Each structure stands twice: as structure tokens, then as C-alpha cells.
Amino acid sequence: MNASRNIAEPARAPVGAWAAPARVRLGWLNSSKGLGILLLMPALVLVVLFFLMPVVLTGVFAFTNMSTATGITGGAYQISPGALRVLTDRHGMGDLAERLGQPTYVVDDRGLAALEEMGIDPGIIAGLRRQYSGETYSSRREFERDIRNLPVRPDTRTVKRISEVFSRSLGNARFRSSTALIAAADAIDPDLTEEEKEALTATTYTGWTWTNDNFRRLATSRDTTRVFFNTLFFVAMTLTLFNVGYAMLLAITTHYIPERPAGIFRIIWFLPRISPVVIYVLLWKWLAWDTGFISAVLSNFGVRPRNWMLDTAANAWFFVILINGFVGASMGMVIFASAIKAIPESLFHAASVDGAYRWQQIRHIILPQLKWPILFVTCYQTLSLLTSIDQTLLATDGGPGGATEIWSLWVYHTALNNYAGNLQYGLGAAMALVLVVIGIVLSLIYLRLFNYNALVAKPRIEL
Amino acid sequence: MRILLDKFSKSFGDVRVIEDMTLEIKDGEMLALLGPSGCGKSTTLFAISGIHKVTGGRILFGDRDMTGVPSQERNVGVVFQSYALYPHMTVADNIAFPLRIRKLPEAEVKRQMEEMANLVHIEALLNRRPAELSGGQQQRVALARALVRRPNVLLLDEPLANLDAKLRLEMRSEIRRIQLETGITAILVTHDQVEAMSMCDRIAIMNAGQIIQIATPQEMYRNPRTAFVAGFLGSPPIAFIDAVANNGMLTVEDADIRLPVPPNAETPPDGTPVIVGIRPENLGRDGDAPVRGRVSFVETQGRENLYDLTLANGRVLRSIQRVSDDVSLNDEVEWRVRSDQLFLFSQNGERL
Amino acid sequence: MIGHLRTWPIVLALSILSAPLVLMYAYLFIDTVTNSPPRSFIPNEFTLEHWSFLWETRPGRPSIWRVTLNSLLFATSTSALVIVVSSMAGYVLSRLNVPGRAYFLAGVMVLHAFPAITLIVAIFLVLQVVGLYNTLIGVILVKAAIDMPLGIWLMKGFYDTVPWEIEMAGIQDGASRFTVWRKLVLPQVKPGIFALGLFAFLLGWGEFILPQVLAPSGNAQVLSVYLAGLIADDNNFDMNLFKSVGLFYMMPVLILFFFFQNRLMNIYGGGSKG
């Protein structure tokens, strides 16, 4: 409507109206650098918090003996029977341990003051001070006999209350700091040597401490070798059979059939990837469990129903590899299929004219084109298989009897979830550190393989 | 507004693209930056607009030094080859964008936007999206958007390159009309000499990061400073042959041609090798210096015919003549050159 | 088609290979609304009893709706966070002249390949110390951080396709670089943002191990952990119930995949985790 009005009006030369323009009000962020840093900030914060810091902390935790028992924030000093045993066995300070362990009664001013506050007969207090001040007893009976011998004789209940006040036993006492611990020990045995003090603080500490035991254990444990070879077997088999091999089979076969069925097959093989992992593994369990599909079908042929997924190590591996492989195959399938699609039609036609059979087409035209995609998938999937955990955890949980325990699952069982209940964070971190290091190395190699410099085009606006 | 590039240089990394270039664009004029691709003309445009920082020298708008001023404050209107319309906005919003950025009151935005749409004749398209427009229409929108905020200078970067031949002719005159109506200072970057000559007041011809010559189109055509300039202007292009100065004449030995030295050049000393430039319109039936050769190519353009004349030494001259039936392919002919219209260049292309 | 050989043997072979998967997924539907006699897989009655979990909360377990809401919160928040962070950082990597841009880009590639799950022990301990253990916020942050490198990578690719001239025009029109990004460039990559958001949502919806470790119980439980808990409970084995909960859980995935299959397949193919 406006337009028609404007057309009717002849366009005048607006030279007169060519006045000074309104000034631009530049926003507060106009430099590439300033805006860039601002926009990168959230990503950087997330990277620091959830990548860099955890990498460093994994390294740090790996050198501690953190566990459920020690806690993670720090601990106290407790003269437990266990600690005293360590003192005896490992430090050869049996005497000290005995002294600390046995009940001790010391008649000191502190106790006497406490008695006054409790409102005990002043005669009793005066008697105690006069006759026994400074005395030490190692037996309650002895001490209480002496109390009863006081000139003002307290009744039996009061005797008990008095003796309790003078009890200076350290057994099962808990101290906030090492100074408090040493002060208390000094009260019992004023002649503690520096060496003894050190041993005492070390053995009674309940928090975590620095250690390289984790790595020693990893290096010497037989489990390490077993889990290592399990992992190697798992990665190698899944990668070659499914993530590359089967994916290639799917990509090539669907290339040779009409688009409609090909699309249907691609979607079917995509299902494992898009399904939430819990459901996906559940479907396998339905297939394999003793009340499941395989058992039911085979029972018609007289085969005893059983849990096919967990009855033998071989079966467990069979399913673990299948379950992981079916998920992995779809990624390779999509990548390979698009690489094959990119091959010019004319190449195929030329080949058919030459009388090449399908196999020769695959051999001489398709496979050479898949070199880079295969390398890409191999790199990528090696990393993700090495660290994959969900499917195996939900399917066999490492069973039967640890047969399918792979490294990442081992970390999980050690540090995050086990039947014993004592989660060994430090050891788990040491195990995870192995994966972290492998992960960093492999992803750097991955970066080298894919020349990223080509991706960094120079910005064309110099502002 | 007068624009002055004062000893302007630009490098990318170690590569010097432009060195010490000085160029003045007068207030209200339309100047063409003409040159082959890679000659630095787009770099110059980016420097004026502020998209690129200059490596050395100054850029003045009027008396104001704009060298360090950010792009946004320079108030430069740019029409890009691809038009760079904002695809997610309607035509009206595209044109209004620069005004809204300046926080003008909405009524004023609407008034100015419509005025500008009027000027470029796209009143009926205001509610469309760029994808629904033809190339020529997009071009008009881009012009309107560049002009709506009354820029100090309008930069046109190959504005016609994406249009088909017919639209190109139409937009050529449209852009010129709009420039004249608004009286804005404009710089047209192009590699097409026809565009430069037909649209602009003056042409600055560039090669390898340097301005070779600045002149009006007529002057530049008649009086090219170098062989490069002569070769760049004119269609069909000028032909060059090697000759040697000899006794006040120019001889092409192995083709048996002798041409007089044109009055616009000084007579070179005997034995000097020179390059002679002959425009196609100056070789034909009338003239003063005979040239013999074989007609090796005939192209009919309707009103005129274009001939290639291959000389005895294998070099080719071009001739454009009124259509006639007496010459056909492979005829041996003797035509004439108007020797007063010849250009004489030294071996390295400088005009003599 | 290519060559003139028959295709039916290939179709047949593929059908046989695909049979187990088809069977499993077919029975995922069938078993939720039918009962079959023992030792048989031919249903003999139609029933809705397996869906009773929708209105009856099972003892010792949170309500399914509470858990579904958690899953929804978890997946949408992660997705939103990934979108925001990636669309910001991706733009910088694609377009802005910041010092060390090449290193950021290399870093993103390394992080994209790096298996973040290996850091779970450290993250678990950190969340405990800062008090975000067993909270949705904690696990959302972690999941978003893990998905972010892929997001940045994809967004950079989307930004790369926006013509430079649009930005140049915006700057000439007087817009600051921030405004150019916000008003001119961001609208051009909307389809990309949508695809990324959808993808991140699905990743979050299906995620199991992170919530299992970082927020296993209480008010933060999500559907995957809930379902895994049901299945792991040896005393109440009811495959039909598991499948019904599973189908309920998978419904959004199937719907989204049905409508946006091509876009999603491309992203998955472009290199996701797993």
C-alpha cells in the first residue's frame, strides 16, 4: 500500500536531504580479541573444570591411598587397636604401643580441679591431693583401692566417678590434630622420642596419605596382566570384526541394492546407536537369559535353558563383542557409505565395461577410496573402545568371574562401585591415569593424522 | 566527500600487496578502480572501508584522518559482488538495518527506508526475502541498504559480475543514475573496462599493486600511458607488433611494413626496438600506411565486421570495419593504417 | 543400479544378518502389550498390565514421572548448555582474530577425540568435595562439558559456511562485531543449532554411566538409572515390565529420529562418541 503511494510520487533527488548521518553507537565489544575472549570464556571454564583439572587430579589422586575409609577431605588421629598393632609390627615400638594401649590413671591438678567442679566432698579432694598427687596407676582396681583408703572414705558410686575423672587412657581416643595427639601422649609418657612421635602420628592418622603403592600394585598384580589382555582382545576383535569389517560390509552391500531397501537396512543398523544403552542391552539380555528367546527356542530341541550370556567365558565374550560391535558398526557404515557415494558413477561404469565383476569393483575401486575413512574410524574407535564401559557393564558386568573385565570396567569396580564397599579411589585413579595417558597420546596422533592447519582459515575482517 | 589515500601500503604477512599508493577521489565523482584480478583493487577497497587495517600511510575522508577509525564509524556504503543481503530479513528490514543500528526512531527509519526504496525502484518488493528476488532486484536492495544511511562514500565491488548480460546493461545505467541523483562520491572496483568506461567520471587503472594511470575514460583511451593501459582498454583490444626505428620510420622487417612515427611520439633514435600499438578501428580501407597480410578470421557483429589480419611474420593485427562483401577468409589484402593514431611503446611498455 | 547382477541374494543375506536386531526391537513392542505362555514367544493375550508402572509407584523406587522429569531436565539443560557454549566458541574459532586461535582449534579436536569418561574418578571426587554429588546440576555440567568439544566442532563447521560478505556488510552498516554475530550470523546457522541441540538432547537422554556414578539416587535419578536399577533387582524379575519402561523411555528417541533422521545420521556419521 505504501509502495503504490511511493510509485505515484516521482523520485526526487534527495540531495537536500542528504544531511549528516546519525552517528554509529558502537557496542562495547567490537574488537576481535575482546569479543573472542568473551565468547570463548564459557568453553574455557568448562574445559578447565571438567578436562584439565580432572586430568591433573587423576594424576594427583593416583599417588594417594584415598578410599572410602580414609575419606577424601582429610582425617583425624585415632589410637585404634589396629594402629597400635601397626606400631608394634612395623615400627618395633611394642613398649610404646603397650603403654598407650593400657588404661592409665594419673592424679593431676586437672583432675582435682574437675572434682571440685563436680562438687565432691572437699575432704576427699584434699586427701587425694595430699597422699597421691603425681601418682600413676596402670590398673583401675589398684587406683580405686587407694581411693577407698582415703581418710574421708567415699561411697562406691563416688569412687567410680572419681576414678573416671583421672582416667588418662588413649585407647580409641580421637584427636583433631597431631599436636593434640602428641600432647596427650606426652601426658602419659613424657619421655617420647622424636622418632616415636613421628611413628605415632603416622600410624594413627585415619585420612589419606601420599604413596606410590598404587603403581607398585598395578605393576605386580596378576590382575593387571589379565585385564590388560582382556582389553586388548576386546578392542582388537570389536574393531576389526565390527567397527571396520562389518561396517564396511554393510556400506558396500547397501551400495549394491536399490535405494529403498538400502535405506531400511541402514535405519535398522542405526537402531543400536540411537537406542539408550540401557534398553539396548536389555534387549540382548532378553535374547540370552535363561528365560529368554534363545533358551526357549533351543528347549524345543532338548537343550537345557541357561543364561547364554554368562554361562561360559567364551559365550560372555561372544556377546560382549556383539553388543559393542553392533553399536560401533553404524558409525563406520555411515562414513564408508558416504565415501562410496562420493566415487564418480563413471568409474563404476568404466569398470563394468571392462567386464569387472563386483568383487573386482570392490577390490580396485571401492577399497582404495576407503583408505582414509578406515584410518579415521580406526583411530576414533580405538579410543572409544578402549574406554567404553556402558555396554559391558550392563551386559556382563565383567563376568563370569572377571572373564570379561576390561580396563575401564576395572577402574569402575575399583573406585566407583564394588561389592566390598570400600572404594579405592587412589588405586582407581592410578588405573584411570593409564587410560588418560593413552587417551592423550592417541588423540594427539589423531590430530597429526588430520591436518588441522588446513582448517584454520585466516579471518578476513581485521577488526 | 573527498577521499584521499596518502602513500597507502598494505601487506599480508610478508607479501606486499600495495606499496605507497596515493589516490584522490574528488567529491561527488565516480571513480573506477580498474585492473586484472590480483592487482590490489579489492585490497584498496577493503582498506577504505576499514575491513583491513593499513600497513602504512593515511586514509582521509575530507579533512578527517580515518586511518585508525573502526569500519563502523567511517560510514562507508559497500555493495558487494554477492550483494550480501541478510537472508533472514525482508527487503524492508535489510534496508532499515543500518538505521536501526543507529537507533533512529522507528518512524524516521520507515520514512528513510521508503525514500530509498523509491530511489532504487523496489517499492513493491519490501516484504519479500532476498531469496525471492532476481539478481537485479537484489542489486537494487543492496544499493538501497548501502545508501540509506547517507554514506561518506559508496564502494561498489564488482557489482555487475553476477548479472546476466541484459541486466548488466540496465544496472550499469541505473547505478550511474542513482549516483548522479544522490551526488555521492563512489568508487567502482571492476576488471571490466566497459563498465569502467561507461559508468565512471575517471578511471584509475591498477596493476601489481600500483596505479598506472588516472584519467577520464576518453583521455585514457586516447592517450594511454603504457602498453598495459592500452591493452586493457578497448574491445576488441589493441594489437601490438614489434618494430625497429629506422630513419624516422618504423619498420617491421620480416613483414615488409614501414610505418611513420605518429605525431604524438618523439622519433626514437635509429635501431631502437619499439612496440607499435594499433587499435582495430585504425586499420582499414582509409589511412596512410599500407599493411599487407592475409585475412585469417572474420567475425560478423552485425553492423561491423571484425577481421584478423595475419602478417607475413605471423603476427596478427585486428581491424574493425563496416560490413562489406568484398573480403572473405584467406584473402590476401592490403589495408591501411592511420599512422597519426598509432601508439609507440618502448620494449618495457612505456609510452614513447 | 550398478552392474547388471541380481540384487536379491544381497538383500536376502542382509535380511538374515539383520534378523536378530529386528527380532529384538519387534519384541520390544510386542512384549509390552501382550502375555505369552512360558517357554513360548507367541503371545496369547493382549494386556496393558505391564504399563501399570505409569500410575503405580513401585515400593522403594521414585515415581516414574519424577524420574522422567529428571531425565527431561537433564537432557534439555545439557542440550541448552552445549548449544550456548558451542555457538559462542564455534564462532570465535571460525571467524575471530584471537591470539592462539589455531591452538584452541587443535585443543577442541584433541578434546573431541579424548575419552572424557576416563576422568570420571577425579570428577566423582571433585563433585563430592564441592557438594554437587547426587545433584542434577553436577551431572548436567559434566555431561555438557563432555559433549561440548563435538558441539564446538560442529558449530565451527556451520559458521564456516556463512559468507564473509554478510559480516562485512554488517560492519559497514555500523554494527559492532557482537551485533553482527548476534543479529546477522547466528540466524544463518539456526538449522545447525537445531540439529546440534537435538543431537545433544538425545545424547543426554540416553546417557547412563554419568548419572549412574555421579547422581545415582535420590531426587536426581534419571530414567536410565531407574531402568538399570529395575533390571538389576534380582528379586523382581519381570521382563515385560522392563520392556514397557524401556519403550516408554525410548519413545521420544524414536519420534525424534523418525522426523529428523537424515540430519541426525549426518551428525552421528560426522564422528560422535561411541
Automatic annotation (TrEMBL), chain A:
CDD domains (UniProt xref): TM_PBP2 (cd06261)
Keywords assigned: Cell membrane, Membrane, Transmembrane, Transmembrane helix, Transport
Keyword flag Lipoprotein: no
Positions of transmembrane segments: 35-63, 227-257, 315-340, 425-450
Domain ABC transmembrane type-1: 233-446
UniProt keyword annotation of Nucleotide-binding present: no
Subcellular location: Cell membrane
Annotated family: Belongs to the binding-protein-dependent transport system permease family.
Protein name: Sugar ABC transporter permease
Automatic annotation (TrEMBL), chain B:
A Pfam family assignment: OB_MalK
Residue stretches making up the ABC transporter domain: 3-233
Signal sequence bounds: none
Alphabetized InterPro entries for the sequence: AAA+_ATPase (IPR003593), ABC_transporter-like_ATP-bd (IPR003439), ABC_transporter-like_CS (IPR017871), ABC_transpr_MalK/UgpC-like (IPR047641), Mo/tungstate-bd_C_term_dom (IPR008995), NA-bd_OB-fold (IPR012340), OB_MalK-like (IPR040582), P-loop_NTPase (IPR027417)
Entry keyword set: ATP-binding, Cell membrane, Membrane, Nucleotide-binding, Translocase, Transport
One GO MF term attached to the UniProt entry: ATP binding
Gene3D superfamilies referenced in this protein's UniProt entry, alphabetically: 2.40.50.100, Nucleic acid-binding proteins (2.40.50.140), P-loop containing nucleotide triphosphate hydrolases (3.40.50.300)
Family: Belongs to the ABC transporter superfamily.
Protein name: ABC transporter ATP-binding protein
Organism: Chelativorans salis
Organism ancestry: Bacteria, Pseudomonadati, Pseudomonadota, Alphaproteobacteria, Hyphomicrobiales
From TrEMBL, chain C:
Keyword Transcription regulation tagged: no
Cleaved signal peptide residues: none
ABC transmembrane type-1 domain location: 68-260
Subcellular localization: Cell membrane
Main subcellular localisation: membrane
Membrane topology: Multi-pass membrane protein
Membrane-spanning parts: 7-30, 72-93, 102-126, 132-154, 192-214, 241-260
InterPro entries in the record: BP-dep_ABC_trans_perm (IPR050901), MetI-like (IPR000515), MetI-like_sf (IPR035906)
SUPFAM superfamilies for this protein: MetI-like
Keyword Mitochondrion: no
Annotated keywords: Cell membrane, Membrane, Sugar transport, Transmembrane, Transmembrane helix, Transport
Similarity comment: family membership: Belongs to the binding-protein-dependent transport system permease family. MalFG subfamily.
Xref: PANTHER family: MALTOSE TRANSPORT SYSTEM PERMEASE-RELATED, MALTOSE_MALTODEXTRIN TRANSPORT SYSTEM PERMEASE PROTEIN MALG
Function per UniProt: Part of the ABC transporter complex MalEFGK involved in maltose/maltodextrin import. Probably responsible for the translocation of the substrate across the membrane.
UniProt name for this protein: Maltose/maltodextrin transport system permease protein MalG
Organism the protein comes from: Chelativorans salis
